[in-house]
Amino acid sequence: MQKRIRRLAIICGLLVIVSIMTEQFLFFQQDSQHIQDYSGISALHLDNIILGLLLATIALLLFERRQAQRLYMASLKLKKHHSQHVQLWNKLPFAIAELDSHKAIHHTNAAFRQISTLHGVASIQQKIEQLFNQLEQNTHQHHPTILQQIQAEDAALLCLEWQLHHANSRIFLTGRDVTQQQVGRNGLSVAEKIIECTPIGVMITGPDKRIQYTNTAFEQVTGYDSHEVLGHPPSILSSGKQSPDFYREMYQTIETEGTWQGEIWNNKRNGDAYLEWLSISALRDSWGEVTHYIGMFSEFTAQERVKEKLRTLAYYDDLTSLANRTLFNERLQHLVSINHKKKLCVVFIDIDGFKRINDTLSHQIGDLLLVAIADRIRATCREADTIARWGGDEFIIAIEVSDSHIGIDTFCKKHLKSLKQPFLINGRELSITASMGVSIYGDDAHNIAELIRNADIAMFQSKKRGKNRFEIFSPAHHEHLMENMEIENRLRVAIKENQIDVHFQPQVCKESIICGLEALARWHDPILGQVSPQKFIEVAEETGLINDLSQVIYHTALKKFKTIKVMSPALGLSVNLSASQLQDVNLVTSLKQVTDIRGIDPASIKLEITEDVLMSDIDQSIRNIALLKEMGFQVSLDDFGTGYSSLSYLKDLDIDEIKIDRSFVQSLTSSKRNKAIIEAIVAMSKVLDIDCVVEGVETAEQLNRLVQIGCTSFQGYYFYKPKPSNQIVELLTH
């Protein structure tokens, strides 16, 4: 109000001065001669003065009105701003209050009032005191901060952050809910502890690919302390086993896909190389820029060694270190899949006579021999050849030859010659031979299964044709195999359903008197028809059915022989034994049991064995023959003269009879050698007091020559063909 009065007085004075000056100007215009008599303001006309004051008053009133309007508008604007300010404060997501110099709370917003209502002003005032204490203790701390944890009504923990702010000599207190941030910090703290405790190595680099952080597992695996690698690139661990292209592709994958993982070799601090499984991920900000690279790895050098050992077991033969079937098949498949300028062949090798060595000299010697054979095959092969142990004493080789038959001939003969050379095993010299079969890809087979199968078939043919040789597969071999498979399947049914019959071929003595019978198996199959004994017995031996077949034949033969024996009690019966039967420790018991069941005297049974059967395991053969003799059985040595060591064992075996093989009889009339051999055998049998029977007599001329030599017992088509038991009965009744 005083300012307005002073301002009004100044304006009135100015108006008076203006009025006087106006009067003076008018006066000088009307009568310039009175200027000299003018003596001051008293000479002014009163009406002019009043007019001036009136004008000044009007002007003043107008001015004041305008000023009042301005002040009113300013007041409204101020109130509006204040209202907006209050609304803004109340809308703030955090609590705020203005403090005076005595730390008293003045203006507050809604958030602050809500907190103070729920949790009390006293607790807030206590935090204010602590904040000011912090400020006094540390003057450089412009915005002291303190946390307050409050238990909410729902039992949740609320965390408030209080902070002091100075602005233009005014003090503000702010408080915000940092519960989530605190939980996040606690979570990060837990995550950091987990990273430190994890057995997985962790390494973090910046975008410049320099190490910023490593955990404890990193130090344990690499041997580097954290401070030794910080600031260095990860290449400090490089082993040099990966090429620059490897790392270039790795980082390119990270840039394009954001992550990379794989096996990598690195070096420890002491220089030892180790294998690790590494995973690298790129962290990016909201603008897509890389902020960090995180590498996590675990060492598995030991696991890799185990893996390599398992791979070796899975792909290599443990005894010979050659490839096994699995690896050979994979390599052969690869060879088949590529174009060949040469012929691809598979050579299947089976070692002749290995079972005899293995069983006689022990499996340990057998294993050492297999290793030596593998080494010799490997040394004889070329570097490009793929060699594997197929199993047991079988080996297989994949080769490529320019001219199929010439190349195969050269390759196989070289190996046959090499394997025929003696092996020195534990101071003992051992000799073996091999049978080989060859199959040619494209000619004999169109996939690896056929290629291997056909080579195996060809090997089997070479073994049948005399061993120590090779055979190249032909379709006839396959037809033979298929025929044998069909015979095997039908033979199993025949044995199970007792479809095997027995015929008897008489043996004659002087004056053509029947003095014995030989039981010979016969088989008429409903599907195959009449099957040759030579054929189905051969299949039975190859497939392991010979024991079951022999038992059926023995049962049937004794059953029918009992009927025949009624007609001729002195008649004897010869029955063939297979190699597997003679090696069976239960042979004696089973034969005696069947014989007793049929009520037949073992003395009337002659068990025929061939020289090959006898020699398959001479020690076991001698033991079983001795036991059979104790039981009363007689023993006959069949096909005598065709073996290679018969004479040396006659002194050790209690043989009752020898049968001269038909091969000597067939050329008796034209071969002096055969005649001399027969004469020698007959003379030896007389000296040793062993009966002698000549097989295969088919003509009168042969018979006359044999009689001249001194033979007394015969068997052959010249006398009788094998006959069913009923015909034998009829023959004996006449």
Notes on the structure:
With 734 residues, this protein is an alpha/beta fold. 51% of the residues lie in helices and 23% in strands. The strands form 5 sheets. Strands 18, 19, 20, 21, 22, 23, 24, 25 and 26 form a 9-stranded mixed beta sheet that branches. A 5-stranded antiparallel beta sheet has the order 2-1-5-4-3, sandwiched between helices. It has a 5-stranded antiparallel beta sheet with strand order 7-6-10-9-8, with helices on both faces. The model is unreliable at 32-44 (pLDDT under 50).
Name given to the CATH homologous superfamily of the largest domain: EAL domain
CA radius of gyration is 60 Å
Taking the sheet with the most strands, its summary is: 9 strands, mixed
* Low-confidence residue ranges: 32-44
Question: What percent of the residues sit in helical stretches (DSSP H or I)?
Answer: 40-55%
Number of domains: 5
What's the CATH topology label of the largest domain? TIM Barrel
The CATH architecture designation of the largest domain is Alpha-Beta Barrel
CATH class of the largest domain: Alpha Beta
Task: Please state the structural category.
Answer: alpha/beta
Distance between the termini: 175 Å
User: Which range does the strand content fall in?
Assistant: 15-25%
Shape: rod-shaped
Oligomer: single chain
User: What do the pLDDT scores average to?
Assistant: 81
Total beta strands? 26
Q: What is the overall number of helices?
A: 26
